[in-house]
Design goal:
Length: 772
Amino acid sequence: MSGARLVPVAAAAWSAAALVTLTPALAGGVAMVAWLCVGAFLLAMRGRGRGTWQRHAGMAVVGLALVAAATVSSHVALAQPQRENVLELSVSGGRAVTLEVIVVGKVERRTDGSAAFDALATRVDVGENSKAVWAEVTVRLDPEWLPGASDIDAGAVVVVHGTARHADPGDRAVLNVRASQGAEVLNPPTGIFAATAHLRRTLVASARELPGSGAELIPGLAVGDTALVGADLDADMKASSLSHLTAVSGANCALVVGIAFAVTAALGGGRVLRVMAGASTLVGFILLVTPEPSVVRAGMMASIALLALLCGRPGAGLATLALAVTVLLMLDPWLATSLGFALSAAATGALLVLARPLASGLGRWMPRPLALTIAVPLSAQLACGPLLVLIEPSVPVYGVVANILAAPAAPVATVLGLAACLTPWAPWLRDGLVALTWLPASWIAGTAHTAAGLPGGTLGWVEGWGGAALLCVVGGVIVLAVTVHGDRGRARAARSLAHATLAILVGVMVGTASLGSVAGAWTVPRDWQLLMCDVGQGDAILMRSADEVALIDTGPTDVALDACLTRAGVTRIDVLVLTHFDLDHVGGADAVVGRVDTVIHGPANPEGEDTLQRLRNAGAETVAVQAGASGALGDGTWRILWPRASAATRAGNDASVVVEVTTPDLGDVLLLGDLSESPQCAIRATGALLPRYAIVKVAHHGSADQCVELYEATRPALALIPVGTENTYGHPRQEILDVLDAIGARTVRSDESGVVAVSAHEGELRLWREHP
């Protein structure tokens, strides 16, 4: 059976896994129907005589697809009772919970700025109710705890105190836990887990002693540990499409297995011994780096390839990928909704299917080696781009060039870094190898910084599934334009159509980019006095009085904020308010570094201090504020209502700076940061609120954790909710929308309206929305 014929089997397994994990109530019924179909299929095939499977390979594919779908559905149906055991717990409303968990992955920074690890929960306490469970959870920590969390690693038993919420359908984790009240290590990792954790920690410690961004990349390139990667480098790696180099995947597995093969062959080992050495090395490597989805996929592919080699039948790459995907989904159906797994499979499939035709097409215009060099990263970017825009609606313009430049350094850094990781018994050798690794790692970091800093480094894109579909069309047109050749009528017509379509798409993209840059100011009312940027799931609000401008928070990315500032015609920020230091409120700060006069902020965590230092280094004055602080903005004033001096100073949502801005035209505006219900009610109890506000920025993107009495007391005419399209939190929640409707406020959301501008004329508010 050819490799391509196994693709429908993998597709069936993936489709069934997505269906039953997103709607687990259907899992039992789908499994039963699928097994009945398998039985009926076998009975039908039995009567066709001997040799039927050989004569009708397509029928074999149908049978395997049915078996794969049935197995996946059965897995979810059998696992659901244990998951329901956890879902029955009443954990909503911010109730305090305590969990005892077994850590199954290393602590890593997530895109929202928090640190997190995956774990298996064995006990959950909610109030007086204690329940024994066995379910996967995701635990998030405050990043400032990371230096003291060295014992939180795979294999450790940890007690977590905090709050929890039920995970979204399709997630492997049943609960998302926030360790807001700490985490206690009962038992640190033991055995092999202790050994691998020690190896990673010594590598990180050695790399930390070296300067520059190259040192930050060393553990990531070697073993996928991104603990040292700072926010700036992380953003530049993503903007230059190089972040995959610190996510251990197929290339790393191929390197370690290849080295094991070569060493065994050099020692005279035969095929069986070489395969055994490769398999043993692969298992050890997976344990060392911890089994992330991309690592598991790569490990499974390598295992299947090794088995085929042992049997003397090396399979085609596409067949190996399809079989690996199918087996993995049978073992873990929740991989079907894992973006990391999808990216890994898409990149591998693109290299197998697209790289050669693209190289052949490009070879008509350039030397063959150069064409192949370009085709490899181009095929991967074409396949992964539509998935990546679902996270960040932008396309890295220089991604292919950056990958070409980084390609020679990546394997060198990986091999040297891995060698350093495996030599903790000889510190002089380890440190020497780390120093050597620093050279190619610094080249990669420099490439990322340069590519991200070039003009037009990222191209804004359409959000959501529409943007993904559009990028698929662009990719398909590029493939046709490059690969179709010949002078026959059909080939010439297809090529002409592809070139014409590509020209139209490029024109549309350039026009869209212009609207987000030089021509953007033409599309926004010139007399705006308040402007809510559309930065996705995050806050960024501009206010203007006379000739002075205030920016309240910066959104999650500098790309989105810079586009908004350009459209608004803002080049200088007089007052920057950083309400708190979660990524969705400060992630875009780099867009205003060097453009800010004064920064006012609340309690800062270590990442927040880094952000403040960058702003100070560029000439900004930073001022920590508490309730009672005030100042001027043009013809208006600002006043801080929260946090109080007597309140807890731990950085986070409930220490958000709440600022009231009063201008002659707009009147009184209240911006509530990400406060939860308790501090909101505390503000109301202080008596500091005015009798009424013209505009209120709703707290925490419209979460359900709100103080209804505060909104009833402020009675805003206009309620603004900055929120991302199709965000995974369900924001804004219907509960707060009902409250706002009941008090007569007009509610405007950035996910529906895009950029929102507010001005005042003759005592009346005028509202402009990008998407009416």
